[in-house]
Amino acid sequence: MRKSILLIVLLILILTAFKINLPDIQVPEASVVYDINNRPIKGLSEQNRISISFDEIPDDFKNAVIAVEDKDFYKHHGIDISGIIRAMFINIKNLKIVE
Length: 99
Fold this sequence. Notes:
It is a single chain. The protein is mainly alpha-helical and about 100 residues long. The protein has one domain (about 25-99). The protein is built from four helices and two strands. Strands 1-2 form a two-stranded antiparallel ribbon.
C-alpha cells in the first residue's frame, strides 16, 4: 500500500514538473571555462559559438564535465532516479523549487 501511494505521488510530481514554465535565461556575456591555474580555456555563448560534433569534443573535456556534474552519468544514462527523488524531497522541504 505504501509503495502504491509513493508511486502515485511520484508520478503526479513528475507530470507536474513538465508544466512548470521556467524563465528564459539571458546571458549578457560569454561563460568561460578555466583550467586548473585559473586561466581561461574557452568562452561559451551564442556570440562565440562554433558548432562541432560530439566526436570533436575532447574526451578529457567530456570526462571533466561529467566528473563535476554527475559522476554516475554512464550508470544511469542521463536519468538519475535517486537524484530526482532527492531533489523532490529537498524541494518539498523548502516549499519551493531549489533543485
